Amino acid sequence: MGFIIKVLVTAVAAFVAAYFLDGVDIVDIKTTIIVALVLALLNTFIKPILVILTIPITILTLGLFLLVINILMVKWTASLVSGFTVDGWWPALLFSLIVSFVSWALEKIVGAND
Known about the structure:
This protein is mainly alpha-helical. It is built from six helices and two strands.
């Protein structure tokens, strides 16, 4: 049950981020839920591998390279999900930051981590 709540919270966060950002478009609610599912799957299975493989460059950049990995996850999601478009690296960065913050805030309100 916790996974479903987290996906729905991420979907709400993605919808909020797409509403406020000019370079990010999500067609409808169904697409928003699919975006949240794909982001969850990529962040669960692919992101840890990328983080491990890029440890040296992450150390050299004092952790800022993790933002590049987040951007890649968002851009990859946009390429996999039709109806979800991201028009560049800056909107992808802002999208990932907004989704992270809104998800964190909503999980605190809903209590999804309990």
